[in-house]
Amino acid sequence: MNRTLAPERLATLVGEFNRSPAYRGLCQALQELIGDGRIPLGTRLPSERAVTLALGVSRNTVTRAYADLIAAGFATARQGAGTFATVPVDRRRAHDHALHALGTNPAIEGAIDLNCAAGAATPGVAAAYERALAALPSYLCSDGYLPSGLPGLQAMIAESYARRGLPTAPEQIVITSGALSALAVTARALSRPGDRVMLESPVYSNAIEALRLGGGKLISSPLANPLGGQGWDLDGIEATLRQTSPHLAYLIPDFQNPTGFLMDDAMRARYAAALRDARTTAIVDETLQATALSDAPMPAPFAAHATDAITLGSASKMFWGGLRVGWIRAPRPLIRRLINARVQFDLGSSLFDQLVVAQLLAQPDILANRRELLRQRRDALIAALREHLPDWRFRQPEGGLTLWVHLPHGSATRLCADMERSGIHLAPGPVFSVEGGADGWLRIPYAKPEEELVRAVKEVAKTWAVAPRDTHGRHEVSRRLIA
To answer: Do 65 and 142 belong to one domain?
Structure first.
């Protein structure tokens, strides 16, 4: 179902565009609006005649602007149907180098990979492996297959939910090989190919691919202005739920990836009520919940408001990405379905890694040290950006692992391609969008050491200083957005 943009709405969005010449300014303003997602992909643009009247320009101006927009790949003309918003193919899903196959994509010497929001192991992980190794012999007499997980680890995770105000029994926990595996298992257990799945936009890129490969028909629900406010546009979310009735909804209420927003209790309650009304089951990704970087109290788990919600967690962001241990917390009636779906992927997670995670969870000071390290790295990255790229805009997150940064002009996809040649690997906005757009945004993780973060920012600043200011209209629209 294609949406139609009214000419009056287009005029409001475009605002005061550059008219020297007018066709170019109009084209650039529309390119910005489509690229950032404020004109959703697939939207039918108003007719040339309607735009002429709405903007008070000549018909030739609109005709040429539309032609240039099509030539640039930001619109497509369908004979007899109209002109529709799109984005160039190379900006729809920009390539993510973070997890390339071993032996491919040889790195430049001294390269810094900021595609992946992960770093080295937290201090204390090596000692936990040693203690786990000492405990391992007592399990070697069994077959080692534990589709539900190590009972002791299940109990520890259940207790962690209870401490946060969500009573949970150990049998409500299914241990998986990471949070992404948990998402794939949940999607397979609870949906069929073709079922609608609502996702936030922008959102964790690997979740997009996991749900798409699972056969879900993905529906995006854009967040509100990522530079201010509370992040979630609940009016828009409620409208999307009413209009599309998705079977599942994937959301990240705790330090949303990539924006870093934290959903408060009132918003969680309202969101949960909207999901109930739409008969939509929430898949709640809590992978980043434990990465709070302030002492402010955390909201209650989303599942405290939505009792049928499925909650996903992981040890990777807490301790180390090499620990492929995640989990699902679900209502009791769904556990058997989840386990049945899980054994179609594997017969259980590494028992040894589960023993390691149990050792780490038993020592809360390890996670506290991890948070302090992340806080220092976040502050170092922010200081470097403010010093070397003062025109770039972002909000300081109170948790999570990333900054969501808005460029004052230009294409983040092009900038990232340029930085590849300098050995700095970054992920542009289209990576985190279901269909594309958000090309004025860049995700920068702060999981790496401070010296690497500062060096990366300095290298980006050198490239940025000579980057062409390719769209005056883009700059003007962005300035209004930030204001």
So the answer is: no
Euclidean distance between CA atoms 87 and 355, whole angstroms: 47
* Four-point Cα dihedral 173, 175, 181, 186, nearest 10: -20
Is residue 2 included in any domain, yes or no? no
Coil, strand or helix at 425: strand
Assess whether 46 and 183 both reside in one domain: no
Whole-structure pTM value = 0.79
- Pair 248, 143 in one domain: yes
Phi/psi of residue 186, nearest 5 degrees: -65, -45
- Model confidence pLDDT, tens digit, residues 145-188: 889 999 999 999 999 999 999 999 999 999 999 999 999 999 99
Residue pLDDT, tens place only, 20-75: 899 999 998 898 778 766 677 788 899 999 999 999 999 999 999 999 999 988 89
C-alpha 259/C-alpha 306 separation (Å) is 23
Task: Give the N- to C-terminal CA distance of the chain in Å, as an integer.
Answer: 33
170, 176, 180, 183: CA torsion to nearest 10: -50
Domain that holds residue 406: 92-116+366-482
Q: How far apart are CA 27 and CA 17, in angstroms?
A: 9
Distances, alpha carbon 35 to alpha carbons 48, 90, 468, in Å: 20, 12, 18
Q: Among 61, 11, 50, which Cα is nearest to 33's?
A: 11
DSSP annotation string for 369-387: HHHHHHHHHHHHHHHHHHH
Residues 354 and 389 in one domain: no
Smallest CA-to-CA distance from 477 within 23, 12, 51 is with 12
